[in-house]
Amino acid sequence: MRLDKFLAVTATATRSEAGRAVRAGQVLVGGVPAKRADMQIDPTRDAVSYRGEPVLYREHYYILLNKPTGYVSATEDGREPTVLTLLPPKYTVLGLFPCGRLDKNTEGLMLLTDDGDTAHRLLSPRRHVEKRYRFTVKFPLTEEECARFREGLTLEDGYETKPADIVLDAAGKSGVITLVEGKYHQIKRMMQALHNQITSLERISFGPLTLPADLPRGAWRALTKEEETALLEAAK
Q: DSSP per residue over 27-50, as a string?
């Protein structure tokens, strides 16, 4: 692999930044300053450092994002900003995509990755990976309505949802919903089947991942090693 490509796919630097760093003697390969940005390296064996920091090659990337409202869950969109625009430009070359979707006005935990196989398994209906959401609704929910929600509802288009857990707060207008599937606008449509309306929705967990309390809206970070291990285990 070319050195400048290696620095790009590790989200270390763009190719132009890599070229300038090489010319300035700021990129070392095996402890020796690289002479050319297009030199060939073995990403799994050669020790590379960039401006004094070691650069580690990763087969796949897993990014945890606290999605704000106003962003669409897509890699590109001609009219609206996408969740990928919340990341630094050097991450655009990694081929990241949202693992599942959140509506434009839904907030909370979103996983971005370039690992298509793992994403496919996590989203497969057969695996029943749980997704938890904090919600508020326009009208208080009754226990009878919650019982119907837990049994599964028939939506307007005739689709019968799988049973979904719901836990209400004291006032009956907010709480936590747990789904094991992710149909289009599912929670909003389930509430519509109860003649109610979602007024706010935030995803707080996805499988083994939980939205960190200290991660501001619009911010992101890479998964910890423990989180990544748990995520891959959930996808097995």
A: EEETTEE-S-TT-B--TTTS-EEE
How far is Cα 235 from Cα 229, in angstroms, rounded to an integer?
A: 10
31-68 residue pLDDT tens? 999 999 999 999 989 999 999 999 988 889 999 999 99
Enumerate the active-site residues.
103
CATH topology of domain 130-206: Alpha-Beta Plaits (3.30.70)
What crossing angle do the helices spanning 225-234 and 116-123 adopt, rounded to 10°? Answer: 60
CATH 3.30.70.1560 domain range(s) in the chain: 130-206
Tokens 């939205």 sit at which residue? Answer: 211
By CB atoms closer than 10 A (0-12, 13-18, 19+), residue 63 is buried
* Cα Dmax for the chain: 72
Cα 19 to Cα 218: distance, rounded to the nearest angstrom: 31
Distances, alpha carbon 165 to alpha carbons 44, 144, 145, 171, 177, in Å: 45, 13, 12, 18, 6
pLDDT in tens, 114-151: 999 999 999 987 888 999 999 999 999 999 999 999 99
Q: Which CATH number does the domain 62-125+208-234 belong to among 3.30.420.40, 3.90.70.10, 3.30.460.10, 3.30.70.580? A: 3.30.70.580
Q: What are phi and psi of 162, to 5 degrees?
A: -70, 155
